[in-house]
Specification:
Chain B: InterPro entries: CheY-like_superfamily, NreC/VraR/RcsB-like_REC, Sig_transdc_resp-reg_C-effctor, Sig_transdc_resp-reg_receiver, Tscrpt_reg_LuxR_C, WalR-like. The structure holds two protein chains of two kinds. By secondary structure, chain A is α+β, with helices and mostly antiparallel strands. Chain A is 61% helix and 10% strand. Chain A has two domains: 199 residues, no CATH class; 126 residues, 2-Layer Sandwich (Heat Shock Protein 90). Chain A is built from 14 helices and five strands. In chain A, strands 1-2-3-5-4 form a five-stranded mixed β-sheet. The chains are: A alpha+beta, B alpha/beta.
Amino acid sequence: MVRPRLRVIGGVCTGLAQHTGWSVSLIRTLMLASAAAGGAGFVFYAWLWVTTPSGDGTLAGIPKSASEVLQRPSGNEEDALKGPGVRRLPLTEILLGLALLVIGLALVARQLGVEVPLSLIIPLVVICAGVGLAWRQFDGIRRASHSSGSSALVRILGAVVLVALGILLFFVMGDRPNVWTVIVAALSVLLGVAVVVAPWLARLNRDLSEERAARARDLERAEIAAHLHDSVLQTLALIQQKSDAQSDIARIARAQERELRDWLFGEADVTPDRDLAEQVRAAAAEIEADFPARFDLVVIGTPPTAGFEVFGAAAREAMLNAARHAGGTISVFLECGAGSWELSVVDRGPGFTLEEVPDDRHGVRESIVARMERAGGDARVSRGPGGVGTEVRVRLPLVASESTGEK
Amino acid sequence: MIDPQDDQLNPVAAAASEISVVIVDDHSIFRTGLRAELAPSLRVLGEAANVDEAIAVVTSTQPRVVLLDVHLPGGRGGGGAEVIQRAAAACPGTLFLALSVSDAADDVVRVIRAGARGYITKSSSGGEVSEAVNRVSEGDAVFSPRLAGFVLDAFGAVAGETAQTTDELDRLSAREQEVMRLIARGYSYKEAAAELFISVKTVETHVSAVLRKLQFSSRHELTAWALDRKLL
């Protein structure tokens, strides 16, 4: 049972109605009737309010993702959590005010000579304050589980002690203490503590079962990953092995393998700023989807995480060029040293050199060579190894990239 | 551990026109597929699907080359590396070539340090696997571009570390770095030889030297994984 976000007081009646399937007005009438008859309704209502979670399917206080926590300004968590249509009474403040009012009135009455049973009122007020404080803490815990630190625990303990003290006082300050009052006092203390602690225990229990469920999910996922790695990945490798690198089947198998790998071993949260190696890898995946080519990518050194826009664009252009004109297996080698970045793209296609390219074709000359020269680096197009295919080498010295790069 | 020098002592197997092979992989579909794709000059003596089976088959058939999957069930959980460690003593003429579907460096280093003569990925074509088997049977090491890239990284070549003497195990010589860079760029041994104006045999010597360093180096990047898996 949960209490809905849209509520009149605590959302208990609506929640109960949804839970039982009865109409809301019927529940409300019953609640009011039982409240009028000795206050049982009040107690029941309060009990449900404290123990049931509020919210829309999930528990209210638990942020759904890390990003949500980050997005939420830490100052006004309550406002952020309330959302539209939620109304909360400042219950604690009202109780506190009432308590002070009662004490004040009692003192005034006593001054005026009226016999006021102070021994009854003070413990009652203390109990009320303790319970109010405890409720507030539990509410806080339920809303934002991540903020429940040791200070919250200390305050809860304080509240519990207060309740116990109040109940004890109630009996000690009574007229003639005897065995029975002591027994009743002890039982009352236990009962009071139980009432205060119960919602907290319920909360703990709920957390525990949720955690257990999450762990079970993780375990299941790991098992699926292991199974897929053993079966599907092997089959995809076999398909690639048995089919020509240029064929559609090999291409599809490769794309599937990459997707599956990303899903199995990739990190769940994708960082917005990729490093150079990831960018080149992504470009390879993209180009492989459009052309019958297979990129064999080798990266050494530490790829930079910023400032590689020009280099990355030239790299992509070189890879695209190789895929378009040669296809087949294309070796891409990226070395990110301390002094320079170097990329080589080797294909086994028909091959070409810059001199053979007609002047009206701007692909290589403009987007690779000229671009790199503007950025302070250089690019070379030559015959591939053994005179077969083409090799494009792109180089960018790092000092130059810092002073003149990024145009 | 198989020393490269042993191969010269066993010229009969290397010179034979047919190379005997055992395929070890826990997926029958992959074994069947690979078997069909291998060159006719390779004779498959047997197949095995787990560590214990592999050790039994390899020791009983004594093949020249074992195509060994890195990830294998059974045994003491050591996978392909365990097969090499336990079977190598019983079959001195056998060489191991690691096959892996994963590119994880520690997996590959594990089998290489156990004594494998090279490593190729499972998506390599039948022709590529056959060529690698030929190369291994002749006593040479097989380096995929990825393994070459990893070696350059692990031995600090990117940062400019270069061995000064030939017997230094923890760094690569300038020539070895050049060869590794070319292999990482997708060059074959022949193409690398032409590029550097040296013979193919010299390239093979360099690659074997690098393999030896990979197996025996105490460089911390390499030993970290080995220690992690209690290989040392």
